[in-house]
Amino acid sequence: MKKLNKLSLPAVILISSIILGGFFYASQINKQRSIERQQQIEIEQKEQDQLSKEFKEQKTKEEAEKLLNDCLSNARNNYSDRWYEECKAQNKLTSKCIDINELSYDEYLKKYGLTEEEYIIQRNITPTNPDDPTFIWFDANWDYITRKSDECSCRLSVNKADRFNESLEKDKDECFKRYPQN
Questions:
Q1: Would residue 153 be called left, alpha or beta, if left means φ above 0 and alpha means ψ between -120 and 50 degrees?
Q2: Is residue 129, in this structure, part of any structural domain at all?
Q3: C-beta separation of 148 from 100 below 8 A
Q4: What is the pLDDT of residues 129-167, one digit of tens each?
């Protein structure tokens, strides 16, 4: 019995040490996994923040480009409108050209009692895809739009033309100042 007591104390200590060591080891493993999870979450958050920042920068850049393009388009439209108004004021445009500048494509067809097909024939347009009504409409509409600058313009005096051209350049420069690109 004494022998058993002598052996049981070290056995109890050994078993207790193994159990305590196991718990300590398990808690350290759990702690390490928790730290790794936290680090992974931080890495993912940083990646998400970076992607969000890049997305915002890209969106800001696209918005700035759109604003610049809109501004430049407005400058060109204002230039064309001023030129047209001057030609009109000098009675250098036909009534049909005035209509082309002041009416939409559909309004023009209605005023002159034309169908889309009649307009295409009258203007000798070859649609890019004659079987698709959308292409026919697009081609006819594009022809109508280009007529404004191709057929319905006039020659202005050098002074007026220079003034309009300078005004256009000034408006474009203002666009680039207002919406600088990186």
A1: beta
A2: yes
A3: yes
A4: 888 888 888 888 888 888 887 788 888 889 999 999 999
d(CA 173, CA 140): 34
Domain-embedded: residue 57: yes
Please tell me the distance from the alpha carbon of residue 182 to that of residue 176, in angstroms, as a whole number.
11
Flag whether 134 is in a domain.
yes
Token pair recorded at residue 76 = 């060109």
What is the domain count for the chain?
Answer: 1
Report the alpha-carbon distance of residue 86 to residue 75 in Å, rounded.
17
User: How far is Cα 156 from Cα 110, in angstroms, rounded to an integer?
Assistant: 31
Residue 7 located in a structural domain: no
Q: What is the pLDDT of residues 72-108, one digit of tens each?
A: 999 998 998 899 999 999 999 888 888 988 989 999 9
Q: In whole angstroms, give the CA distance from residue 153 to residue 146.
A: 11
- Per the listing, tokens 């079987």 go with 131
Q: Which token pair is 136?
A: 């026919």
